[in-house]
Amino acid sequence: MIRIERVSKQYASSKDEIALNDVSTTFESGLIHGIIGISGAGKSTLIRLLNKLESYEQGNIQIFDYTDLRLLNQESTRMLRKRIGMIFQSDHLLSRKTVLENVLFPIALHRKVTPSDTEYARSLLQEVGLSDYASRYPAQLSGGQRQRVGIARALIQKPDLLLCDEPTSALDVMTTSQILQLIQSTARRHHLDVIIVTHDLNVLREICDTVTVMDKGRIIESGKLDEILYKAKQPETQAFTKQIGLDLGTLKNQFPIEELLLLKFEEEIVHQSIVSEMIQTLGVSISIVFANVSPNKKGTMVLHAPKKQTEIIAFLKERKVGVDHVV
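The structure assignment produced for this chain is given below.
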């Protein structure tokens, strides 16, 4: 668990603007956490505090068995960072080193690389789909491939926590989905906690369990992914839900709230004709007012169903479609 208590941070170059203002939150173990906000919201600053890439003036951060990060000496800081892998927006690969040497670089900084280290690095390259690229140089790789190298490098010291700072912002949609799925599968395989920072709700929607929304150095809303997507309270959060076309506020103004149903379904249901089957079976009249399927085949739909709500809900739940009233 990571506990952040009333942390504030101000950069010397910006006396009028506070990067973090009395921030408190908790990141539970075993989950993928997302932090979202516009540029300057403080999200990158927050995660850089966790491995002491940044310092803070007030408050307290507890992580692993460290009860106050500000008390760590140089050796303790090195041990902390060994337990935290980091993936950056830019891959930060060393252009004159091969892919294998880049993966091994965090170890080579502190000690001599052993044959066991090299063997593990090669296994990581195989895991990220680059086993045939060990002897190539960064300039010979695509953007997605370089980010895969960055993931392997972040894992080389067998960390407990993976921090991802805008890891897909420079990638196309298809590559973004592939990298996110790789981060998700890697987290499960290595039993990692993950915190991912982004300005794109689509990114968090792909893999996150919980979401924290930041604005102007403060946390304005946090909760499980579904709570943020479908029950956003703050205007800033609602602006992010509009990124995926889910403008519940507008829908509530257009239709009676009691007549709107929110459907959530997984990949195996995406290709089934459940809605048309429901119309024929129940003899209902409905309108689809919103529908979206994400790259990882998670579907969301809002129906305007003025009649037979109870029958519709029972029909959908029987077919393993998550359904509830829009609130």
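Interim note for the steering committee: Residues 260 and 304 are 5 Å apart (CA to CA). DSSP finds 13 helices and 13 strands in the chain.
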